[in-house]
């Protein structure tokens, strides 16, 4: 029997370096992370996603990997990792880790060998050209920061290809030895107890880079089949979560017939979710969802609001993107790469608790598995003084004590400064203070997660949209095993009275979660009164002998 545990999981994304410092050196580590596992268990987290923690020069926050089989000494040892895995298992929390195999650091021994000798066995692990391709300025991943995708190496006397920064040469997955090594890496961490991998930059990883053209040759989707087969053979319950910001028509290529990726981040809907919030109009979300294909039975969307990168709006039209900029990033310093926003959710929503709750309610009710970034549960802010994506990668704010309780080291030794001023400073926004406040965002999030775990329909069910007579109101139903849950969300700041066409023959609506659940509907024929930015989760009860038509 296939274990589809990820269908109803609650995933929490963590950067070890900025989460909790267990030895007082100013850098987060596995000892500090293990000490805070009870917090995560109490919050309701069922799976932790660890961003790169491997040995690295850390020029790209650990995504420039120098050794796939170790732990960065700043974060601890392999023994500390094993202890953390044991503690996570004791708390019933699974762990998935980042698998960054589109590229390595230029300091990786493989690349150092490849550049030193044209006869090196690792030479063919990378992509080389004697002459700089004419289109080297095309296809850069970081416009405004990155200038080219080809860089000359004096020692190799050749140009090497890098889809991202010039210190991250791309691996050549067309080489069978590279794919075998990736499987060996996966097998290593599987043996240490992880439950799967988040695959970084999958569309770039599988492109045929040997074609010497941009875009590169056709994607090699069969690689995903091979990786899935290997993973299921080693551990049947392990999953692969793909970062693939692709068009809806390309989605089936990543899921296959249920024999490729288990999960994909739902970038398509995520971007329209913020467009809907900017316009106070629910229709972009509904339209975006209708664009998506049906998924295989074992496949799942990973729903998210913010991850560790910029909020990518590249799939919106220029006019739509500009409206999002005006609403959530009015200053140029808040934007990044000509396509995104480098802010956390709370400051984007102007600190408005109603809007923050609304967006998180959508995260928990749209069909799929919710992914929460560390600190979002308390409404952390961002530090726009830090470069590029680091603005939202600040230390976790545990308490109003010095350094936000993240570390006992002197402030100047912290891996990154804590947010200390403004409305999102750690003295105002922290776990310790919110834990004692029944009405805090932290306690709201815990209640929301508990409700979400009691509503497997949102993870397992099939999503359909219900007609309303208010364009600002999104009503969607998820049905599984004969039971139906409905999420209702008002994107507008204005109160409204909305009529919803419920699935027939609904006669009773049982409140599950929301801001004003004491306002019960008499029956399914009633209009529903919603405050500005209001939301409700309702369970539908049926009486088959009655049929109700509610929308005129």
CATH superfamily of the largest domain: Glycosidases
Report the span from N to C terminus.
46 Å
Beta-strand proportion: 15-25%
Rg for CA atoms: 24 Å
Indicate the percent of residues in helices: 25-40%
Structural class: alpha/beta
Q: Mind telling me which CATH architecture of the largest domain this is?
A: Alpha-Beta Barrel
Number of helical elements: 17
CATH fold field value of the largest domain: TIM Barrel
The CATH class of the largest domain? Alpha Beta
How many domains? The number is: 3
Q: How many DSSP E strands? A: 21
Low-confidence stretches: 545-552
- Specify the overall morphology: globular
Strand arrangement within the widest β-sheet reads 1-2-3-7-8-9-10-14
> Mind describing the biggest β-sheet?
8 strands, parallel, barrel
User: Which whole number gives the mean pLDDT?
Assistant: 94
What tags apply to this protein structure?
552 residues; alpha/beta; TIM Barrel; Oligo-1,6-glucosidase, domain 2; Immunoglobulin-like; 3 domains; eight-stranded parallel beta barrel; five-stranded antiparallel beta sheet; 17 helices; globular; disordered C terminus
